[in-house]
Amino acid sequence: MTGDNSNFNHLEALRRYVPPAVWAIVILVILIIPLKIISEGYLPEDDALRHAAKAVSGKSWGDILVLGPAFRDQNFVWHFFLRQIFLWSHCDTDKLVIFASAGLFALFGWSPLPWLKRPEAWLITLTIVTLTSGLMPRLMFGRPFLLTLSGLVIILSAWQFGDSSPPRWRTLAGVTAVIAVCTLVHGVWYLWALPVAAFFMAGQFRWGILLAVGWIAGSFLGATVTGHPIDSLCYAVEIARRTLGMHDIQNTMTAELQSFSGGVYALLVVGALLVLRNLGGLNTRPWKSNPAFWLVCLGWLLGFKAMRFWNDWGWPALMVLITCDLQLLLEARFAADSFKRLALTGGLAVMTYLAATCDYNSRWTQNLTWSYLTQDNRDLNGWLPDRGGIFYTADMTLFFQTFFKNPDADWKYIVGYEPALMPDQDFAVYQRVLWNFGDTKAYAPWVEKMRPADRLVIRGDRDAPPNSSQLEWEYGVSGIWIGRLPHTNAPPPAPTIPATATRETSTNSVNSTK
Amino acid sequence: MPQDNDPSTASPLDVVRRYVPLAVWAIVILVILAIPLKVISYGFLPGDDALRHAAKAVSGKPWPEILVMGPAFQIDHNYGWHFLLRQVYLGSHCNTEGLVLFAVVALFALVNWSALPWLKRPEAWLIALTAATLTSDVPLRFLLGRPFILTVAGLLTILFAWQVRGSSPPKWRTAAGMAVVISCCTFVHGVWYLWALPVAAFFLAGQFRWGLMLLAGWVAGSFLGASFTGHPLASLYQAVVMASRAFGLHSTQRTLASEFQPSAGELFGLVIMGGLLILRQLAGLKARPMTANPAFWLACMGWVLGFKASRFPDDWGWPALMVLVACDLQLLLQARFAADSFKRLALVCGLAAAAFLAITNDGGRRWTSNLTQQYLTTAEHPELNGWMPEKGGILYSSDMTIFYQTFFKNPNGDWRYILGYEPGFMTDEDFQVYHSILWNYGDPKAYEPWIKKMRPEDRLVVRGGAGSVPSSRQLEWNYGVSGIWIGRLPRTNAPPPAPEPR
Fold first, then answer.
1. What's the rounded Cα separation, in Å, for the pair A479 and A462?
2. What value of ipTM does the predicted structure carry?
3. Where would you tag: which of A38, B266, B267, B385 has the fewest CB atoms within 10 A of its CB?
């Protein structure tokens, strides 16, 4: 073991406090990271905003979005949960989002800890992930998929760090419960086929069968709580099929559903692990019998179809692999009650904290200069959709941000969080707009069916008003143009704020989030 | 050992063997000198502080006559550097460009030569330099012609001194040497407080005697260096105030100077460190353990602190890592090549060519991007008459490169700049305007407080293409030179004329 049996005998009595101190440091730093990030003013950019707004609004999606025939709320329970928090606390959408971001980050960060003897290994893993992938911002997205990631890490850790004896019935119960909760909250039950396959590929047949049973039981159990078990399970598959199948090319898909470029840094990490195993003489299971390794391989391969396979399944599995090897290394190098271990953990905590919270490329503060379309902005009087109107846009961020700031507004959005939910006719327009890189002409079918209550909203610079002459245009807030049908028979006026005018409404004050 | 030391394989060439070490030294020294000479032969000029240092030396004016300063500014923290450049200028009567080129060549040579006296195999430094060039922009920073390079040279000297002599307790003359090195760095660069990092690194490595010696040298050297300015305490205090304001006035990191923004994690630094560990294992190098090496700890601290500001790894972490690399490679080279081996000579030629080509190649136009730069100066652009600030005027701009370039070309201009080399020295009111402009990504509305207080002799300078006239109608605008608009108060009561882009 280590040779740090120091001569400071009076310190010996303190050695027993080293392990709890290490645990305390790791647990706290994982909690402090999201708190520090949200203290910068960070808000996620996508679904977390609409989840919070949905919870505050209390409305059904049919009252919020213009929906096609195929629709069911996949995140029913997540919205229910956030709604209860809102009703209990009367907080606003900001607070709900912050709660989701910090809560889900901490949940994911803590998920492997019960299985670890050396939790500081997880801190190193978190730092490696921060440096070599874009996963850290995803961990702050405050979205229900983080619950699925946590469930995956729990199951892989249970296999990885548990004893090598065959699984017991209580393990099956645990796996079923985890998958049931994930299905209930996140909805994407079918992708659990990947870890099941990974267990079989690793030759872990007993665990594979157990996981398969737990998957079937958990999925059904989770779906049952929605009140429509079969419909719910079928719908999840149907929406996945539409989401991927309705696009002719990947360019028109949501960014996270497009393919990745190969995750070269992750391969570098895998290579480094191999070297570590060899040079460090680690006594580990061979990778080919490790389900986490096979899940990494599956996630990496499928990442060429959609990067979420890699981000949501491959990386968490790789994190478990890394942690396993690092734990062995740390156990071989440091005694559990060594002060060197405590010092190392302190250093690792500082490193992880700084790596995760540093605002590189404005990743945590870019939202501070966003401008929102809000009903309480007097300059926008008459420029937001009227009662019963439709908010036309081909930019999903406009839906996320506008719904987030106006959860109780009485209009509907043509595009919401998933274009595949749109009526087929509107989806065709949406896809044409993206296909033509936002060319204004592609909006023509929407412009033609617009009513006086509706608005068309397009992002663009102040100096570049959209050139659709059928609408009158207002430079609503910085970077956003709003078009409406002319209120008179006269020709539509020139842009309300000429390009040469001083920018009274486009500049945000420092620290403003509006 | 290599076969070519075997007497049985002696050849007529063996008589020349004794010149191999000498030739190696000559090659390494010369290639280090040839690199900056080649780079400046392209027409390279650094983009930032080197320009203002040269202009300051030529102007002979104090900063308050050059910049609109807030009360935070008390003393020039690069006093020694400006004094040195001023003497060079007075001795040679060169222009600002000549001074900048002198700084670029001299400092690059100095920082790289500072490693050589401590090495038995100087070619190891060439490998370290090439590796750093391929994986970071640190060696390119050595060509910026700025006084921080002297601090890096001082750091290399101290770290290498320990690598060579660290096995025995330090002597008092070592402390004196350290004090001299640090005093020079403090006098020229001014940033005395960051020497706390190598001091901490020595203690973390368990090198307590050396740590104490460096601590003593740091305290003595900082005070000595500051004393040369004539205001020792004020000078030391000013350096801390400047650092505090440079970071503390900004509410987000996005508005900081780019080199003060955080790094993404210097992944290649980790790769090199991992490569060294593998090399040690596979080659069986008898090197000191990393954990007992201050350079290792300094590399670690620089890397971690890079998440706060990228200058920590650039100025402290990477040089320390280069020391580690050079020392391990030296062990490898000693084990593989005899000192007077022709193979060694051939290897050094190859390494010299690699280092030369790796640094001097103009990939991404890194050495020639300034050639198309146009400057605001009536000497080169007589059509700017009437559009430059008038006597006693102020040049308003939120772009520091405008200051660097305009001051560089007009060191004797009788106007002042609202923004100079450090926004933290602006008046609080002006800093708020500057910050608001950056916050709003240059939105013209954010310039309004400055426009409101502009006088006829003042000018507002904004970067922009010929087709994008700044939208402020309170000023009349001239597309001064390519990519730069100049605004001034209208000279008549008539409405300002429409701008005519050239």
1. 7
2. 0.84
3. B385
What is the distance between the terminal CA atoms of chain A, rounded to a whole angstrom? Answer: 58
Q: Are the beta carbons of A362 and B265 separated by less than 8 Å?
A: no
Give dist(CA B169, CA B207) in Å, integer.
9
Tens-digit pLDDT profile for residues A122-147: 999 999 999 999 899 999 999 999 99
Contact call for A265 and B277, based on CB within 8 A: no
Q: In whole angstroms, give the CA distance from residue B18 to residue A96.
A: 77
Q: Using 50, 70 and 90 to split pLDDT, how confident is the model at A498?
A: very low
User: Per mean pLDDT, which of A175-179, A465-469, A472-476 is the most reliable?
Assistant: A175-179
A496 touches B: beta carbon within 8 Å: no
Question: How far is Cα B274 from Cα A446, in angstroms, rounded to an integer?
Answer: 57
Query: What are the chain B neighbours of A37 within 8 Å (beta carbons)?
Result: none
**Chain B CB contacts of A132 below 8 Å:** 267
Q: A165 and chain B: CB distance < 8 Å anywhere?
A: no
User: Are B281 and A279 in contact (CB < 8 Å)?
Assistant: yes
Q: Which residues of A touch B264 (CB under 8 A)?
A: 131, 360-361
What number of residues does chain A have? 514
Q: State how far residue A477 is from chain B, nearest Cα, in angstroms.
A: 13
A130 vs B contacts (CB less than 8 Å):
265
Output the CA torsion sign for A151, A152, A155, A157. Answer: negative
**Contact predicate B54/B85, CB 8 Å:** yes
- How many angstroms separate the CA of residue A503 from the nearest CA in chain B? 5
pLDDT at B60: 94
Please answer yes or no on whether A279 and B308 come within 8 Å at the CB atom: no
CA distance A315 to A308: 10
**Based on the number of CB atoms within 10 Å of its own CB, is B475 exposed (0-12), middle (13-18) or buried (19 or more)?**
buried
- The C-alpha atoms of residue B370 and residue B37 are separated, in whole angstroms, by 17
Q: Which of B409, B418, B415, B407 is nearest to B389 (CA)?
A: B415
Q: Are A55 and A78 contacting, i.e. CB atoms less than 8 angstroms apart?
A: no
Q: Is pLDDT at B364 greater than 50 in this prediction?
A: yes
Average pLDDT, chain B: 92
Question: How far does chain B reach from its first CA to its final CA, in angstroms?
Answer: 70
Q: Which stretch of A395-409, A476-490, B39-53, B466-480 has the lowest confidence by average pLDDT?
A: A476-490
Residues on chain B touching A365 (C-beta within 8 angstroms)? 252-254
Q: Which residue has the tokens 């300034």?
A: B370
A422, A66 Cβ separation under 8 angstroms: yes
Neighbours of A185 (CB within 10 A): 22
B64 to each of A1, B51, B147, B420, B429, how far by Cα in Å?
63, 18, 21, 11, 17
Candidates B265, B435, B446; nearest CB to A355: B265
Distance from CA of B145 to the nearest CA of A (A): 27
**What sections of B284-361 are H helices per DSSP?**
294-305, 311-312, 318-336, 342-360
- For A168, the token pair is 């017991």
Encoded tokens for B84: 């040195």
